[in-house]
Every structure is written in structure tokens, then in C-alpha cells.
Specification:
11 strands; ATP Synthase, domain 1; about 45% strand; Single alpha-helices involved in coiled-coils or other helix-helix interfaces; alpha+beta; about 30% helix; 2 helices; 2 domains; six-stranded antiparallel sheet
Length: about 140
């Protein structure tokens, strides 16, 4: 039995497929792989790449954080922000990385501001990596 998978943000449904073999997501405790018949799970996500495996194809998505829920054979990600790999503008991601680096180098920032900038930096780095490889790959 395949997995039903959807990734949504407050603005839109980013990805949905009711016939995937595996979902791999970046939880705060490390990568989590979900296969059919997985035990119920709720996990907090950190900025990173979500990989969706369907047969020999693999689709890459980027999330800025959020939550993952597994219930029966349904995997739902509620993301703070998310993009498909083909939606990523590499030049914009590079500019966001540059802005975050500049802000991080300013030592006068308050600690909570630095945490937000560090998250933005991690998100921009993942966007760059996934955007440059363009996400859809054939699995060997």
C-alpha cells in the first residue's frame, strides 16, 4: 500500500501525491524516513530538504521548518514556507544567503535576532543546494 503525501503552507498546497513509496524529512532530531505502515508520528521539522520517492523518481522540496504528521498511511507536512525544487530561483537564494551572512557578521545583534538569521541562513543554503541540483533525480 503506497503513502498519501501532502506538503502545505498557510498560502498554498505545495505538493500532493497519493501514491508515493517513501518520504524523507529533516526533523530536529535528524532525518526521518517514512515508509508504508509507519507508526503514528508527529515531528518538528528544521529547515531542510524533503525527498519524496516514487518508483525510480525522487522529487526534492525545501521547507523552512514546520511539522510532520504520520497517521495510518498518510504523511502531512505543515511547513512555515516551502518550495518545489523547480520553483527555486538560485540568484534570489544566493542573495538571501548573502544578506544572512552580512547580518550574522554584525555582532551587535540581539541573541533572538541571531537565531532568526541563522534559521534564514540554513534555509537559504538548502534552497541553493536543491535549486542547483534541480531536485528531480532518477534513483539507481
Amino acid at each position: 500500500m503506497p503513502l498519501n503525501f501532502q506538503l502545505v503552507t498557510a498560502e498554498r498546497q505545495v505538493f500532493s501525491d497519493d501514491n508515493v513509496d517513501m518520504v524523507i524529512a529533516p526533523s530536529v532530531d535528524g532525518q526521518v524516513g517514512i515508509l508504508p505502515h509507519h507508526a503514528p508520528l508527529i515531528a518538528i521539522l528544521q529547515p531542510g530538504e524533503v525527498r519524496v520517492v516514487k518508483g525510480n523518481d525522487e522529487q526534492s522540496l525545501v521547507v523552512a521548518g514546520g511539522f510532520l504528521e504520520v497517521l495510518e498511511d498518510t504523511v502531512t507536512i505543515l511547513a512555515d514556507a516551502a518550495e518545489r525544487s523547480e520553483e527555486i530561483n538560485v540568484a534570489e537564494a544566493e542573495e538571501a544567503r548573502h544578506r544572512a551572512e552580512q547580518t550574522l557578521s554584525n555582532r551587535g545583534q540581539q541573541e533572538r535576532d541571531l537565531a532568526a538569521v541563522e534559521l534564514a541562513m540554513r534555509y537559504s543554503l538548502v534552497r541553493l543546494r536543491v535549486g542547483q541540483t534541480r531536485g528531480r533525480r532518477r534513483r539507481e
